[in-house]
Amino acid sequence: MQIDCGIIGLPNVGKSTVFSVLTNAPVKISNFPFCTIHPNISVVRIPDPRVYQLAGIVASRETVHGKIKFVDIAGLIKGAAQGIGLGSKILNHIQTTKVLCHVVRCFDDNQTVHVFNNIDPCRDADIVNTELILFDISQCEKSICSLQKKHKLINENIEQQLFVLKKCLDYLYDGVLLRKVHFSNIERTNIEKFNFLTNKPIIYFANIDEKSVTNNTYLNKLHAFAFNNSIPLISCCAMLSSSKNRDDRFKTAMKQQKDILCDIVSVIFSVLNLRTFFTINSHMTRAWIYVVGMTALEAAKKVHSDFKKGFIRVQIIKFDDFIFYRGELGAKKAGKICYAGKDYCVKDGDILKFLFQI
Question: CATH number, domain at 318?
Answer without folding.
Answer: 3.10.20.30
